Amino acid sequence: MEHDELFSEILLRRQGNSKASASSIGAQRAPVAAPINPAATLAAAIAHRRAPAFPYTAAGGQGAAATYWVWFRAGLAMRLRSGAAAAGANVQDVLREPTAVGLVRLCAEAFKMPLSEEEMSHLDKAPVSAAWLREVLA
Hints:
single chain, mainly alpha
């Protein structure tokens, strides 16, 4: 385990097995983005996560399901905007490959901010398309 928020370092020190190393005290290493297979990543996320709490409901609907998906779309929009800003990219880049697999690829490779399994499992139930993404980003 390379990085775990210092927990193993603390655990080892409590056990008397190790003391703080220079590498853990000094500058942190820059993350290295490994190439991913977005389709396999999405499939694995869907397999590991249960379906969202409510079936997909389009914007403008009423009830708990509509509220749930409004918040998902708002969170996704924020995630895409912050990823684009951090990468120095244009948020409209999401329209190049307007699919769930395309978003997984873009966030991991271009934005260097991979989507969580939970986000991916939700994208699997959403009608991801260029029109949908434009609505989400509006």
